[in-house]
UniProtKB/TrEMBL annotation, chain A:
InterPro entries: Fatty_acid_synthase, HotDog_dom_sf, MaoC-like_dom. Belongs to the enoyl-CoA hydratase/isomerase family. It comes from the Bacteria. GO terms for cellular component: fatty acid synthase complex. Coiled coil: none annotated. This is MaoC family protein. GO terms for biological process: fatty acid biosynthetic process. It comes from Nonomuraea gerenzanensis. Residues 12-120 form the MaoC-like domain. Pfam families: MaoC_dehydratas. GO terms for molecular function: fatty acid synthase activity.
TrEMBL record, chain B:
Belongs to the UPF0336 family. Residues 7-136 form the FAS1-like dehydratase domain. This is UPF0336 protein BN4615_P1235. One of its GO terms (molecular function) is (3R)-hydroxyacyl-[acyl-carrier-protein] dehydratase activity. One of its GO terms (biological process) is fatty acid biosynthetic process. SUPFAM superfamilies: Thioesterase/thiol ester dehydrase-isomerase. It comes from Nonomuraea gerenzanensis. Pfam families: FAS1_DH_region (PF13452).
Length: 142, 149
């Protein structure tokens, strides 16, 4: 398990190239099946609206997985992520159309720790809403 | 209705072992749209130093509530599951989960608190192999919308 990013080559404040991830209803159906989370707010528009939501919303863990993919793609090895936490600050509303929603993820190296570890601060947005807050990953670099 | 604070500190019996399969990891990776070969190709994973394909960082969510999950449906807790959304999630990894792992979870309700009109409940789960090797710790905070109102 070895990250392709070298500790000596990153600096505090360095930005990671932003990425966009699309989410449509079919992705939520697949995620429900794969994760076992069949909460109806993630696939049943009638139910979602009945409990006061604007429409079907993505699983928070789907959004977190996109932020995770952003970090692992950068690090070059998923095993390099040693700590990963987020707060779900807003919902990703997924309309029933062919475009769905877009989750935009960006990151910045916030801190260099001992043992060649760095803290990456993450931001995820959908439209105008910040959908993850307090999102950070600790990554073991080489 | 406010959640029953008596549940804070409760630790639930270890879950039945969860056997991690290559097929499940592949299915999960496909669901999140991640094509990383380490999630699908055993030879690629072994070349990277792993015993088998590894799972994406958020994969432990698949099984992390297997112990302690019954607390959420216990009528004495007072949780309205229809109003639940995910509030926070954190994973501390000792190593990645990989195919072939047999994992056992031990969960504890560590916190119940009010935030505005909502009730927040946090479950900490220790994930170990059946041999006792620590793999990761998960912290799952769920929000009951309007629960405090």
């Amino acid at each position: 398990m070895t990250a392709t990013v070298r500790y000596d080559e990153v600096e505090v404040g360095q930005e990671l190239p932003a990425a966009e991830y699309n989410v449509r209803r079919v992705n939520l159906v697949m995620y429900a099946g794969a994760s076992g989370d069949f909460n109806q707010i993630h696939w049943n528009e009638r139910f979602a609206k009945m409990v006061g939501l604007p429409d079907v919303i993505a699983h928070g863990m789907f959004t977190m997985a996109q932020a995770g993919r952003f970090v692992t793609d950068w690090a070059g090895d998923p095993g390099a992520v040693v700590d990963f936490g987020v707060r779900f600050s807003s919902m990703v509303v997924v309309p029933d159309d062919d475009r769905g929603a877009t989750i935009s993820v960006s990151g910045v190296v916030e801190e260099k720790l001992e043992d060649k570890r760095v803290v990456v601060g993450l931001t995820a947005r959908a439209g105008d809403a910040k959908v993850l807050s307090k999102a950070r990953a600790v990554v073991q670099l080489s | 209705m406010a959640l029953n604070r008596d549940f804070v500190g409760r630790t639930y019996p270890p879950s039945a072992p969860y056997e991690v399969s290559r097929v499940k990891i592949k299915e999960f990776a496909a669901a999140i749209g991640d094509n990383n070969p380490l999630y699908r190709d055993r030879e690629a994973a072994q070349a990277a130093g792993y015993p088998d394909v590894i799972a994406p960082p958020t994969f432990p969510i698949v099984f992390s509530l297997q112990s302690g999950g019954e607390a959420l449906v216990d009528p004495d807790l007072g949780l309205n599951l229809a109003m639940v959304v995910h509030g926070e999630q954190r994973f501390e990894y000792v190593r990645p989960v990989h195919a072939g792992d047999e994992l056992v979870m031990t969960s504890t309700i560590t916190d119940i608190r009010t935030a505005g009109r909502n009730e927040l409940l946090t479950v900490r789960s220790e994930v170990r192999t059946v041999q006792g090797e620590p793999v990761c710790v998960t912290y799952n905070t769920i929000v009951e919308r309007g629960g405090a109102g």
